[in-house]
Sequence to fold (322 residues):
Amino acid sequence: MQRRSFLQNTAVISIPFLLGIPLRKAPKIRIGLIADIHKDAMYDADDRLATFLKAAQKRKPDFILQMGDFCQPIPKNQNFLNLWNAYPGAKYHLLGNHDMDGGFTRQQTMAYYGIQQSYHSFDLKGFHFVFLDGNDPNPKPWAGYNRLLGPEQLSWLQADLEKTKLPTLIFSHQTLEDPEVGVHNASVVRQVLEAANQKAGFTKVIACFSGHNHTNYLTQINGIHYCQINSASYRWVGEQYQRVRLSEAIDKQYPILRSTIPYKDPLFTFLEIDPKRGLIHLEEKVSEFIGPGPAEMGIVNTNANDPITAQISGFELGFGRG
Fold:
């Protein structure tokens, strides 16, 4: 489902005021978003990050956010991290599951990135922003990557939403929409969000944004929008579709790329919250596949919630005005 078609079905969410200020008088907020660069898998990750940061310096958003699967905490990635750290504006990290690859702990990765907390929140220009960490330990005997919001984080989230009176946007690496491909206890997390909205008497939690799945999808569940931001670099398609798309030298250094369809240009986006118009706007970014795309490769994608596409679709969400 394309996001523009979704706009036709989007309900306007009622939010009365921002700290007593009518929404129509509140200032705009702009955010730069980039997800799933995968420095350790993508041959030109530095160039992709630099392109995003150059665009951000030109746009001067209120803050930028990398949404996880950034880089492993190893010495050879220091120059990549230095690019990020040199950005002069406000910047934040989400932890992705691959950021602990190589046997690293969350604490080691956080120390490498220079962050103190893996989940936290803050207020900005009359809105509340929540960053979550979907990498809490899985209960035994689960195997594979951690993909959970544990009891401590859930309690924190519930208390955090209880305290704020502001309209809220939530960001996480793994989606809160689908427990099969995102946070395993996503339904429990959504119950916390929906209970906060019900208790507030208005849609306090407007939307949740995530990366992780390298796809381009927007949906709504019980009045809350869920948006998946596409990878900056590629889509994983599996070993059954392996092929060498780039040079032999690149293939030798980054063999994982054989099982992906890389994007020619980096994908990233800028989100704008416009209280005066009562809209959240996500900017469109379109690239193309390097080499044959899914159709030419005979990949049949039967999941409408998970399109294989080299783009981030633009959309507008109405959230009401005071």
